[in-house]
Amino acid sequence: MEQPIEAMPGEPWHSRADWFQRCLWRNYFNEETGIMNQWYPRDFITKDDNFYYWWQAHVIDVLVDAYERTQDPVYAERIRSLSRSLRAYNGGTFLHNYYDDMEWTALAFLRAYLATGEEEYKEAVQELWADIRTAWNDHYGGGMAWKKDQTDYKNTPANAPAAILAARLYGLFREEEDLEWAVRIYAWNKKHLVDPATGFVWDGINRLGDGRIDYDWEFTYCQGVFLGAGLELYRVTMEPQYAQDAIRTAEACCARLCHPESLMLPDEGIDDTGLFKGILIRYLVQLGQQFPEQQRVREVILANAACLWEQGIDAELGLCGPSWEQQPETPIQLSIQLSGLMLLEGAAALHL
Fold it and tell me: Do you know which Pfam families this protein is assigned to (predicted)?
């Protein structure tokens, strides 16, 4: 059993992130499958549970966070082992019906390639990116489809991460076609799914086949990935409009989704939505690092991290819940645990 957090109240954020990384591995890793269980405790799983492929991509992402921060070879080995096991578990391929799931996997592998230099990750990214590009079609004037069997549904979760991926690929390998993809995908997302009055990002259009935008789906996820796309395009083009877009969306997000006094982000529930806050935090951290003068961004991250650490973690089990203000109640899904870990890693990144 890991040391309870009460025993280390004065530890810096990187030590807290280390502890929660160990808790993730202890509580969720399945030696039989080589990937993470989707629930703690493991015996809560039923035969009817979906396999949430994209959660495993975020496991790789947080392992890369730890490896970049510590250079501990244990994390590099875990990334390697888990990625190979994920391919096997997914039927011998990284390809999938959901385009956004593949985008997250490609983003995680691209980071793994940069961190370790291992060619197998680069090869996986190239395989995924070739398939991801087939998501673009003419429904609603372009944009990336959400999944292969519903190509007329377009949403921010399938478009903004694709723009991030394309921009990063261009930044690394300087293929003009990748930049063209990033610019085109981002432009479609901004035109169709961003409120021109505020910069707040909507989820999707035509989910039910009626051509409607889901204005009432106000998710932290969408804000995070769109501002992340703007930030990546700013980095590779240095065009100020992209930075302005990212900052504007961050401001709209904080104003609309954070508690006005405590700055706490909302409890968005379980399943996929359990990951949403962590994804927002990941890209808010990057925005805060790029533009240190954005104090509100830093305040939101650290307020949420402090509250999670002081109120929202079960010290004995090493678990957190969907609310970062309350003690968790088991069973706890992997998605929720990952969001909490992204928050602690984000706080550690801001204090490096």
Answer: Glyco_hydro_76
Kindly report the backbone phi and psi dihedral angles of residue 12, in degrees, each rounded to the nearest multiple of 5, phi listed first: -70, 170
Which DSSP helix (H) or strand (E) runs through 80? helix 73-89
Model confidence, pTM: 0.96
Give, in order, the Cα–Cα distances in Å from 36 to each of 127, 178, 313.
23, 32, 20
Q: How confident is the model over 95-142, as pLDDT tens digits?
A: 999 999 999 999 999 999 999 999 999 999 999 999 999 999 999 999
3-class DSSP state of 121: helix
Please tell me the distance from the alpha carbon of residue 288 to that of residue 349, in angstroms, as a whole number: 10
Cα–Cα dist 326/308, whole Å: 8
Angle between helices 53-70 and 276-290 (to 10 degrees): 40
CB 139 within 8 A of CB 206: yes
3-class DSSP state of 129: helix
CA distance 89 to 106: 17
Closest alpha carbon to 235 in 173, 196, 287, 157 = 287
Domains annotated on the chain, with CATH = 5-350 (1.50.10.20)
Give residues with Cβ within 8 angstroms of 332, minimum separation 6. 39, 40, 319, 320, 321
Q: By the 8 A CB rule, do 39 and 333 touch? A: yes
334, two tokens: 């992997």
Buried b (16+ CB within 10 A) or exposed e, 221-253: bbbbbbbbbbbbbbbbbeeeebbebbbbbbbbb
